[in-house]
Amino acid sequence: MLAVTVTKPMIAQLAASADWAFTQKLDGKRALAVVDSAQRPRVQMHGRSGQQIKIPATVGRQLERLPEGRYILDGELMKNDVYYLFDAPQISPKNQPLIGLTNPYRERMEVLRHLARQLWTGSHHIQVLPVAATPETKLKLFRGLQECRAEGIVARRMDAPYRDGQRSPFMAKLKFIKTADCVIDRESDEGKNSYVLIVYDEQGNKVPVGMVSRQVGDARHAHVGDVLEVEYLTFSSHGRMVQPTNPKLRLDKLDKLPRECLLDQFFPMDMKQIMAYIDLDEPAASQCPIH
Question: How far apart are CA 45 and CA 55, in angstroms?
Fold first, then answer.
């Protein structure tokens, strides 16, 4: 399930609503863990593209502790071999459906937290990402993440189902630093010191969105066809990024495929669209950002 991008005023509206909860947006590798007693190997992990990715041994050993059955856990795999869980599309011990895609987010998280307390209390390598659910804790989390220059914040609707493989209006994100994933299309016609960056529209057509110097950041080691994450000030009315800079090479090509670099990442969803799709225990908010 992928998030839509929203603006800061929209996040403020969601912070005031009892229907939404906040978590920190992490800068790691999105990873879906599938633990199934009927499959071999029993523990698998998949990236955004659906392809299998390597599981750190320390994380794999913790996932092996899950009882017999089938489990699908959604989270972010960090460079220090910590797997932060923020959703559970399926929890079926001994093949008895306990949690599935249609259960609301609040129920999925309640069962996930209970499972984590049983198996991973004190574990460094698997942790459940803290959730802020009251207006006060959401505001505190938002301010704390901004002050610590974290990547951003994610809002989830508490009564929403899990939409597998889809961008969902029930899950919204705000990046504190504007970034975009772009594909290197070719060297600039104005010389060989810049790359032309493109994304794809809904029909799969290439859309030029700017240029980045080949002499800065990871662009020095990149090639045509690679995916770069670049920072930018704003997206102009002419359809170009203003001052794209600090390019970072997405080394794991299975984590972000070129065809997944879409034009809609530059256009936040309108709040009316989100609310059209439309209490609970209050877990503690995170006191400090995770890096």
Answer: 6
pTM over cut 0.85: no
- Domains of the chain, CATH where assigned: 1-26+131-176 (3.30.1490.70), 27-128 (3.30.470.30), 179-266 (2.40.50.140)
Exposure class string for 32-70: b at 16+ Cβ within 10 A, else e: bbbbbeeeeeebbbbbbeeeebebbeebbebbeebeebb
Coil, helix or strand at residue 27: coil
The C-alpha atoms of residue 32 and residue 41 are separated, in whole angstroms, by: 15
Helices (H) and strands (E) in the chain, counts: 5, 16
* Rounded Cα distance, 189 and 195, in Å: 9
For residue range 141-190, what is the model confidence (pLDDT) as tens digits? 998 888 877 889 999 999 999 998 888 889 999 988 888 999 999 999 87
Q: What CA–CA distances, in Å, run from 147 to 23, 25, 135, 153, 239?
A: 15, 14, 18, 13, 31
- Interacting residues of 70 by C-beta distance below 8 A, sequence separation 6+: 34, 35, 36, 37, 38, 90, 92, 95
